[in-house]
Amino acid sequence: MTLHLRVGFMPLVDCALVILAKDEGFAEAEGLNLELVREVSWSNLRDKLNVRLFDAAHMLGPAAIAATLGVGGVKAPMAAPLALNLDGAAITFSVRRYEELARLAEGDMADTAISAQALAAMVERRKASGLPPLTLAAVFGFSSHTYLLCEWLAKAGLVLGRDIRFEVVPPPQTVEALTSGRIDGFCAGAPWNTAAVAAGIGAMVHCGVDLRRNCPDKVLAWRADDAERRAAAVSKLNAAILRASDWACQPANLGRLAMHLSKPDRLALPADILEPVLHGELLQGAGRPPRKVERFIRFDREALRPDPEHADWILAGMGQAGQIIRSPEMTEQARAVFRPALFAGSASPP
């Protein structure tokens, strides 16, 4: 008998394995009928999973931990039987702000410490001139993107929310927010940095991997009680996504993957913008040539293994962002979100 599962996702390259599970027939081969629902914000997606309008969801790992801990207004214990990717983020400024940053840099802007010092100089100049503070955005408060911004700013003694205004902008709205001048820059997952550069209004400052390699990002999240009582459904969906991972790791398939992602009910962006990103070929803007980044985003099986140690970095980021005061109990609860045992039961050899 075919099992119907309703799965929410946000329009990002890192939803690829969920899309492939449906569109390439891997879910059907596991006896699943996947209904995929595109969402407009991470908070909507989280809340619908919490009230079981979704069976599972493509979710920010930090958002799953925040919901489990009950910080951020929602208490909803979550379980991640597998990750959906590692890495894949970038920091993009408006062209005007990037050019100002480059003029202030004392050295190679590729060095994250030098770019952070240039940003600190920009902050001081604006203060001295009586200008409003810069505004940087991330896609959600509880996200690796927020914590990558915090790590970068800390290299120059800057604090997000103190020296620089912070705003939450859902991924598909980042380009418009940059175009309108509502924000000066943002950190988001692919392809929205590339979309801003392609539109002529953004310039990439850094890839996430410039700051941290193998950074935890999205997970396949279930309500914890559902993951425990619906072990067969979890195992079937895991198996479909692992098959999708094997398929996505073949370079010859990336053009077809870009076509799947480009559909109006998926990312709704041209495949010729998406395919280079999948190959790690990133537009930089501001008159610079594209940059080739090895393993810009990881979809391989090893990247999909849920690692409780990732919770330690996430909790450290929450602390640096002023979101929590960490305790041993929090560490135990956060680590329990990642369920390697549920992954191991599905990870038969390719």
TrEMBL record:
UniProt keywords, alphabetically: Cell inner membrane, Cell membrane, Membrane, Transport
Matches recorded under InterPro entries: NrtA/CpmA_ABC-bd_dom (IPR044527)
Cellular component per GO, a single term: endomembrane system
Subcellular location(s) of the protein: Endomembrane system
Protein name in UniProt: Nitrate transporter
CDD domains: PBP2_NrtA_CpmA_like
Keyword Cell membrane (UniProt): yes
